[in-house]
Specification:
mainly alpha
């Protein structure tokens, strides 16, 4: 299944190999650190030739995501073609219950997804830990009272763009990463301020795995596409900052 040209993934060609590392890992490895049985990236000619120089074969990496997306949707009706990223994103939003308009940009929908997960996790988190989150944000000169991190407030902050949007996205995606893979993103160490979001990891894990939710993250395709979409959202946020730097 070849890479299907996708305007919403073309920006990956501007990311460096360090940026792409977590995306590659979630495509290749499961939460236990074992190779996914359904992945094919590690046997590709590009991977064998370039290894961890991921920027050299970003299209092959994007192709892998499109393939998993095809597995999570009705792929046999697509003539063997991979699924465009927008379809993968909307499928996950529909499954979790994230509202969006069909004519909205992919980045706007990604921000709605991040805002939805954050606001719902905070709503169900221990209030003591949530208040600590507020203090930790202030230590980064980002004064966001946790009371304002409801769906509308979170979305408004994320839509501002810039460093504040990136920091908030990084914090949420890191919490999602810990909830799914039981470790932080590779770009986050134990002293990084986003660790303050540890208090919402349990609610995020429940949100993604609860039987009451339509999404089944225990399914082989969703185990990949869910974290991959969050990672793409984070990379796009970073790309937006780098593009105006």
């Amino acid at each position: 299944m070849p890479y299907r040209k996708d305007d919403d993934l073309e920006f990956l060609g501007s990311m460096n190999s360090v940026d792409l590392a977590d995306l590659v890992r979630c495509l290749m490895y499961n939460k236990d650190g074992n190779l996914r049985l359904t992945q094919s990236l590690n046997v590709s000619a590009e991977y064998r030739r370039y290894g961890d120089d991921y920027a050299k074969y970003w299209k092959r990496i994007a192709q892998e995501l499109q393939t998993f997306g095809a597995d999570s949707l009705v792929s046999f009706l697509r003539g063997g073609m991979g699924v465009r990223y927008e379809e993968i994103l909307k499928d996950i939003c529909d499954s979790i219950g994230v509202g969006y308009s069909q004519n909205e940009s992919v980045q706007t929908i990604e921000r709605r997804l991040v805002a939805f997960v954050l606001s719902n996790a905070i709503l169900n988190a221990d209030k003591t830990q949530v208040k600590e989150l507020n203090i930790e944000f202030k230590s980064q000169n980002i004064a966001i009272p946790y009371e304002k991190l409801d769906a509308n407030g979170s979305n408004e902050i994320l839509n501002r763009g810039g460093i504040i949007s990136y920091c908030l996205t990084l914090a949420v995606v890191n919490a999602v990463w810990i909830a799914i893979f039981r470790h932080s993103l590779s770009i986050v160490d134990n002293t990084h301020p986003v660790q303050a979001l540890d208090g919402i990891i349990v609610p995020i894990n429940w949100m993604l795995t609860s039987p009451q939710k339509a999404i089944n993250i225990t399914g082989p395709a969703y185990r990949v596409t869910v974290p991959a979409v969050f990672q793409i959202a984070l990379l796009r946020s970073k790309f937006s900052i780098d593009a105006v730097a």
